[in-house]
Amino acid sequence: MEEEQVADKSDKSKGNLLEESLVQLRCHFTWELLVEDTELPDLENRILDEIDFLDTRYNVGIHNLLAYVKHLKGQNQEALGSLREAEALIQQEQAAQSEARSLVTWGNYAWLHHRMGRPQEAQAYLDKVEDACKNLGASSRYSVQCPQMDCEEGWALLKCGGK
């Protein structure tokens, strides 16, 4: 019985450390976007229309936002698909920019896996973000100031509203 209690406390401690790290990420899950449940279908339709009708082939942000909306609707597998699409678009870009462009996507992956009860996968994406931040010379383990992230955050706030 004691071993179970120790293991339970250890799991809770790891979960708390994971949460403390996740809140430091710059991504849709931390930007305090104001999206009401009643607005989700309309927002999703507008995003899908933009994907279909505008030249957004290289717009990673729209796929990241779609992933967040899918998660809010409880469609986590579809959200993972949107994040995979964002990653594919990043790979088409210049390699020099791919690490900075991946930070929001990796942050969204980390949060999504965490919410899906997959702490190992969440930690793997946190590790990717941490490595990228080191490579980009950031002073923070999980966040970096760069125009790519500012642009994506601003775009998401314009689409959804936020604090």
From TrEMBL:
SUPFAM superfamilies: TPR-like
One Pfam family here: TPR_12
GO BP term, example: defense response to virus
Coiled coil (UniProt feature): 69-103
Keywords: Coiled coil, Repeat, TPR repeat
Keyword Cytoplasm found: no
GO molecular function: RNA binding
Gene Ontology terms: cellular component: cytosol
Family: Belongs to the IFIT family.
Full protein name: Uncharacterized protein
Organism for this UniProt entry: Gulo gulo
